[in-house]
Design brief:
Blueprint lengths: L12 H11 L8 E4 L7 E6 L5 E6 L12 H11 L9 E5 L9 E5 L9 H7 L5 H17 L16 H20 L4 H12 L8 E3 L8 E3 L5 E4 L6 E3 L1 H11 L23 H12 L6 H24 L7 H23 L2
Antiparallel strand pairs: 1-2, 2-3, 3-5, 4-5, 6-9, 7-8
């Protein structure tokens, strides 16, 4: 825990404190700062003000960024739009678009009690086994609530291009795969075959909804009863096909029976979680959506994950990011597993 005199990476503490005091009615400095883990590489801190009120401040990482990466205003826009809906999100408090304050745009949101999960041990520590079925139902119900929101009604009708979501994603990630091959030194005919089968089986997209894009246990906050307190990390959200979100959740909902074996310690390997079929049935019950083409979305998400990990591995291999040998080997294994899953799912279409 740092106080107002401690240097905080990415934040001019005095300038940010002054700005927050001038632009909010609920927070008064000085603040205690506590770095929060997760949230990609965005710099995210819990603030405790002089009255004991807690909030969270969030900005992009320092250094040169890709043009559309780490868009704080985009995240803020989603929180502001969803705050008065049944979708659980943190309360939006203030957005700063003046980069002179601390070198980047940042926003302040309410502090939400709870935690996300990156590992099975974290699940075991936080939620009793008899409550993990409830947690799974909450996860599905929150996603159904998100997909029930009319983007136009909440001012998000321009949050992304609504049509052709899956096709555009396939084209984009296939381009990433081919561009990464020389650096990753990994190519596989199964990925190319999966791409071709997916392009031949593109589903008919219904009305676009807001899609989160990375909806899994590490981007949802839970209290100790397994109840969702907030969905977080909205930076890659857009308008698109809601079944892509569902399939992404299902693909990440791994079990010990999966072949190839999932990464050891994955959150859903903790005891007490229901199988994927339960999640699928609950989503269908909550939304009334036709899931007859769900296998296509499953294959698409395995393909997309393989391309994403392939690109990450390529950047490490090319020296664009630092990584130790053991972690690089672990990432290599994840790439190979994703390729196998994408190939098998594509072949099943």
């Amino acid at each position: 825990m740092a106080d107002a005199t401690t240097p905080i990476a990415g934040f001019d503490v005095e300038a940010v404190t002054t700005w927050i005091e001038a632009n909010t009615d609920v927070l008064r400095g000085p603040f205690e700062w506590e770095r929060l883990v997760g949230g990609h590489s965005n710099l995210t801190y819990a603030l405790t003000d002089s009255n004991g009120t807690r909030a969270v401040v969030r900005r992009p990482p320092e250094g040169e960024l890709l043009p559309k990466a780490h868009d704080m205003e985009r995240e803020w826009r989603v929180l502001d739009a969803l705050w008065d809906t049944p979708v659980p999100v943190a309360q939006p408090i203030a957005l700063c678009t003046d980069t002179d304050v601390t070198g980047a745009r940042f926003y302040v949101m309410g502090f939400v009690e709870g935690r996300p999960f990156y590992s099975a041990d974290e699940v075991r520590e936080w939620v009793p086994e008899e409550r993990r079925g409830h947690l799974a139902d909450e996860m599905v119900d929150a996603l159904a609530a998100l997909h029930a929101v009319d983007p136009m009604a909440v001012g998000l009708d321009r949050h992304g291009r609504p049509d052709g979501y899956v096709e555009r994603q396939i084209r984009s990630w296939y381009g990433s795969w081919t561009a990464s091959v020389p650096f990753a030194e990994i190519d596989d005919p199964g990925i190319h075959a999966a791409h071709d089968r997916l392009m031949a089986r593109l589903p008919d997209q219904g009305p676009a909804t807001l899609v989160h894009g990375d909806y899994m246990l590490h981007n949802v906050m839970f209290d100790r009863t397994g109840t969702v307190t907030a969905i977080v990390d909205w930076e890659i959200s857009t308008l698109g096909d809601p079944l892509a979100d569902l399939a992404y959740l299902l693909n990440g909902w791994v079990s010990d029976a999966d072949v190839p074996a999932p990464t050891p310690g994955s959150p859903t390997l903790a005891e007490g979680f229901p199988e994927r079929d339960h999640l699928t049935a609950r989503y269908a019950e909550r939304t009334g959506r036709d899931l007859s083409e769900l296998d296509v979305y499953i294959a698409f998400n395995h393909f997309k994950t393989a391309c994403i990990l392939h690109g990450v591995y390529a950047r490490y291999k090319n020296g664009q990011k630092a990584i130790d040998a053991a972690d690089l080997e672990h990432l290599h294994g994840r790439v190979l597993r994703s390729i196998e899953l994408a190939s098998a799912a594509g072949a099943a279409l």
